[in-house]
Amino acid sequence: MNGVDIRAETIFTLLRLPAARASARDWWTLMALAVVGWLGAVAYLGRYRPNQVARTLYAIAPRDVLFYGAVVLALSAALGLVMARRRHLAGAALIIAAFLVGHLAYSWLYQLIPARFVMPFQENAHAIGFALSRLAYGVGLAIPMLAAWWLVFGRGHGWPRLHLGLGDFTVQNRDVQTSAAAQPAWRALLTGYALFSVAMLVMMQANVGFAPIRHGTLWPLLPAVLIAAFVNGLVEEFVFRGLIQPSFIRGGGVAAGLWIQGLLFGLMHWGMSIGVLAALPVSLLIGFGSVVWGKFAVDTRGLGWVVIAHAMVDVGLMSAFFVPQR
Questions:
Q1: φ and ψ at residue 183, rounded to 5 degrees
Q2: Cα separations (Å) of 271 from 3, 48, 59, 244?
Q3: Within a 13 Å sphere around the CA of 59, how many CA atoms are in the beta-carbon half?
Q4: Which end of the chain is more exposed for a tag (fewer CB within 10 A), N or C?
């Protein structure tokens, strides 16, 4: 990016880096697009996962009004930004519109595949149903989003391009510690991040009194947990770090792209949670973590590192809540 090696920067120092900064207007535009994407997606998915956040939104306006209104807002924003000659942001708006339209494709695909399962899992076969449902979500969203990317960015040669492969785990980078020396991505994954994932597993188990371990319900379903964690990580990283993040970076620079996709990712988890206030701190932590994941996706130029990291965290979460506790 203009000769600057952002791998030597952290997610915090990028905010001060002139080459990575965007104007305040670009930041606000991208944040508005993130909120529109969140509003439409939560309104649509609330029909399948009723929760307090969705019910609160439905008290403001009917579900279809919220969803289709968000689609129209995103498309209108894309058109308005083109007319205002702000094409870098118009592409991000079109990607958000495609993200929302993809939920319609997801519903159609879900009806076509045997993706039925119960929660918590009662047998390993239920993980296959869960995995298929997540794959349907990923494919449903990816088709219109990839089409939108090709339409607005596909023939360009600017930075960033889509990097949807494994990436290079040997690159030296930093994530959050300014004083720490840069280290290979693989080492960060196998040391500090592995310890964080173990701590997450212990914390999640403590939250349920270690019941899945004490009662032995976890071990027969461990393959189901591993399958579910990997597929969920693969799908969410492909959509958010693979497609949304690059469009936001195009729209507002690397710092805005990283932090605002993190905002959207955290908001999505909050919107799909059971409670409103109780789930907010955890959702903010998820959003912050996704900024770190986004930095690794940019630095390694691929999704391999973040898919593994995401799956490691999901194993801790799912081992507590995706299996019977007794």
A1: -140, 160
A2: 39, 12, 15, 18
A3: 7
A4: C
